[in-house]
Amino acid sequence: QVRLVESGGGLVQAGESLTLSCTGPTLTFSSYAVAWYRLAPGKQREFVTRINSAGSADYADSVRGRFAISRDNAKNTAYLQMNRLTPEDTAVYYCVLGNSWWGQGTQVTVSS
């Protein structure tokens, strides 16, 4: 079973930044794309960003220009740098490896 460990969530004020981390299994991490999704109360799950194994990334319109995804395959870890956060970014953020394996989620709360 593939286990993903997310960290870095927390409570911040609008305009501040957070960096989320997602660490996966050693043998398979570098071969798969890593994506971040989020789920806010009362809303549907939303795609945030994805980075493929070659390092190319795409973003949802709502975060493009504010968020940046990266990966360090030597550490089996992907990162989500979130800048200029707004209350609308408040959600549980999930890391997904290879469109198949989901992390447990990490809460991000942005106060106004």
Structure summarized in a few sentences:
The protein is mostly beta strands and 112 residues long. Helix content is 0%, strand content 49%.
Description:
The chain is an all-beta fold and 112 residues long. The protein is 0% helix and 49% strand. It is built from no helices and 11 strands. Strands 2, 4, 5, 6, 9, 10 and 11 form a 7-stranded mixed sheet that branches. Strands 1-3-8-7 form a 4-stranded antiparallel sheet, with no helix packed on it. The radius of gyration is 13 Å and the shape is globular. The model has no long low-confidence stretch (mean pLDDT 95).
Draw up the topology in text.
Elements: E1 5-7, E2 10-13, E3 18-23, E4 34-39, E5 46-51, E6 57-59, E7 67-72, E8 77-82, E9 91-97, E10 101-102, E11 106-111
Parallel strand pairs: 2-11
Antiparallel strand pairs: 1-3, 3-8, 4-5, 4-9, 5-6, 7-8, 9-10, 9-11
